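Example record

The entry below shows one chain as it appears in the dataset: sequence first, then structure tokens.
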Amino acid sequence: MFGIYAWLYEQESQRTSDRVKSALKSRAQRGLFKGSNPPYGYAVKDGKLHIQSDDTPDIVRRIYREYLAGKGFDAIAREIYNEGIRTPAQISNKKNASNKWHGGTTRFILTNPHYTGDLVQGRSTTRSVTNKSRNQNNPEDYILIPNSHEAIISKEDFEAVQLLIESRKRIRPQAEKHLFTNTIYCADCGRGMHYKANSKGYVCGNYNKHGSKACSNHLTRESTLCLAILNDIKNLLTSLGSTSYLDTIDAKVQKQRLLSQKQINSTKEKIAALKSKKQKAVGLLVEEVISKEAYDEYIDHLNKQIHLLTINVKDLETHLNTKDDKTSLFELKRQLESFVEFKELTPELLHRIIKKIEIKADGKAKVHYRTSTPSAYFSIRIINAQHSTCVVIGNISTG
């Protein structure tokens, strides 16, 4: 029976979707803007686009002017971000709107024909009521209403930008992979760190892309980090031979297991409460207390919360279902001993025993060693990554 109800619901949803699409197409053919958010620099009044009275139209003109002057998408975005200019998402009051401008944002503005005064709609459509990804339509299927509103950019400048974008397209060579690529991260903002050949080291990806307003550089020399980690591996190998060290770790991990079980129980209760809200929402929709649009938005919000909580439960359960933690410690010790003669930090050694390295602003590195027990990051150790001497802080932490 549930399958029949699901099929009936999908059919009704598809009919509703078709009616909505037909209505939006009719609006577009009458020269009315049908999008949920107007282009950056415009406002919607009575279905028509009007230039905003704030500084956003000037930002649009500046983006076009600077691109024609030779700057790229990312360079323009970085300058605007560092000046503290609000993003299109912030202007539209979107949930969780970022304050960062990205190259994709400037590119979207530079390729939007609405800025020429032409209303160009129907450029894409959703695949189906159950698949919200979008298909790009052929240009001949666009709904074009010339000169429907006041232009911010001249057609000549818009065409010049499109030609310049096309001419700048190129096949990018594969990025050279360095020893710590996809292993080293900024401890303050969480972004991966980028290798800079001129510094022979790594800098925070946020800093590299957006500048000092986003984060500090966290500059770490590759050779210095290699030496510090080699020293730490040798010190760790010595520590793993100590019974008291292993007992201390085991006690902390067992404490973490109890905490994880409490978190699992609490999270499952939250999931059950969210599912109950979904059931109540179905009743409100059937009784026409809420609209289909409001129902879909609410259910989508609940589903996202349930999905994240479910992933959290699975991760916690994985930690609890792994084998004995002391066994994993001995396995790590055996792996380290297999490299007892190592004199350099090779990719094999690095990726076999180290999961992640986080660099703090003061140059200290937090090293997460791999074990067969995901919950037991017992060997998180702090070393100084900006000086050749390794300083091991005796803190033991769990995942």
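Notes for this example: Residues 1-5, 127-132, 372-381, 386-399 have pLDDT under 50 and may be disordered. The first strand starts at residue 42 and ends at 45.
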